[in-house]
Amino acid sequence: MNSSNMWNPQNLQYCFDFVSGACPKKIRSLASLSALYMIMLGAIILTMGGNLVVIISISHFKQLHSPTNFLLLSLATTDFLLGFLVMPYSMVRSIDSCWYFGDWFCTFHTCSDIMLCTTSIFHLCFISVDRYYAVCQPLHYISKITIPVIVVFLFISWSVPCFFAFGLVLSELNTDGIQDFVASISCIGFCSLIFNKTWGVLASLIAFFIPGTVMVGIYVHIFTVAKKQARKTDRVPAASLSETKKISVKKESKAAKTLSIVMGVFILCWLPFFVLTITDPFINFSTPEDLYNAFLWLGYFNSTFNPIIYGLFYPWFRKAFKIILTGMIFSPDSSTLNVFAKT
């Protein structure tokens, strides 16, 4: 997305040798290069591996073919594609400040980056809607969250970000009024999306603040309802008060922990990047490039954490992971195994 290119004029190396107009290359120490590659490669491997386990589990085991899990399957597909199509090339660009993959792929990469990150956030928003009905309206959950409803959720989650990302980049609305600035920093090996003031705000609202606010609002409501239900459960005859109270306290504690992790990780990962996206045009694009890249990768990490948050909290995920890891998935009729059974 948006990035400033503040080059150090000393000891310049260039992205392409013997090419006039090539971009300066970022000079880093061996220790810095090693650390960055280890962190970013680790994130890429975990993102692809973790989400691939979710994809295989839900696709393979028939017991997991439910409306809710189809939403998780689509989220995992989105995050896997981000790890496969976007993060490896962003890694090279972030470390070297160079784009080696051509102008066409730069456009495709930029569109995919915006689309998949936004799609992932939209999925998280709709998962919060699913959790709302599961916790707050459990009697109506089966009738409300059906396969057709999930199809609508998925259609919105994919189509709106796709139209937004490709429409914005290909129309170049984001550079309206700042063409001279973009021309002044452009060079051979440059690939970064620059937002003007208007689209810095609008893009952040569409991709993060609106779905994020909906998501956080729903989870706060879920937590409030869960606490009220726990308190009502406490109002029981004295004979059974002690055991019931233990159960209610346990449920309330688990709900608080789960929701705090969901909201905390989501906000921690994406808020800094989108605040920067809004503010950078208003401070004349003076954000240090490494700071921008740090916030961008923090956002990517949300796709790394998603299979942990939305996978490891489910007991079936641990069972399915064990079956895959031990090779039992290749046995006949493994798709009919009971992944909800305790082991």
TrEMBL record:
Gene3D superfamilies: Rhodopsin 7-helix transmembrane proteins. It holds the Pfam family 7tm_1. Belongs to the G-protein coupled receptor 1 family. This is Trace amine-associated receptor 4-like. The gene is LOC115465097. Residues 50-310 form the G-protein coupled receptors family 1 profile domain. SUPFAM superfamilies: Family A G protein-coupled receptor-like (SSF81321). GO terms for cellular component: plasma membrane. InterPro entries: GPCR_Rhodpsn (IPR000276), GPCR_Rhodpsn_7TM (IPR017452), TAAR (IPR050569), TAAR1 (IPR009133), TAAR_fam (IPR009132). Keywords: Cell membrane, Disulfide bond, G-protein coupled receptor, Glycoprotein, Membrane, Receptor, Transducer, Transmembrane, Transmembrane helix. SMART domains: 7TM_GPCR_Srsx. GO terms for molecular function: 2-phenylethylamine receptor activity; trace-amine receptor activity. One of its GO terms (biological process) is chemosensory behavior. It comes from Microcaecilia unicolor. PROSITE patterns: G_PROTEIN_RECEP_F1_1, G_PROTEIN_RECEP_F1_2.
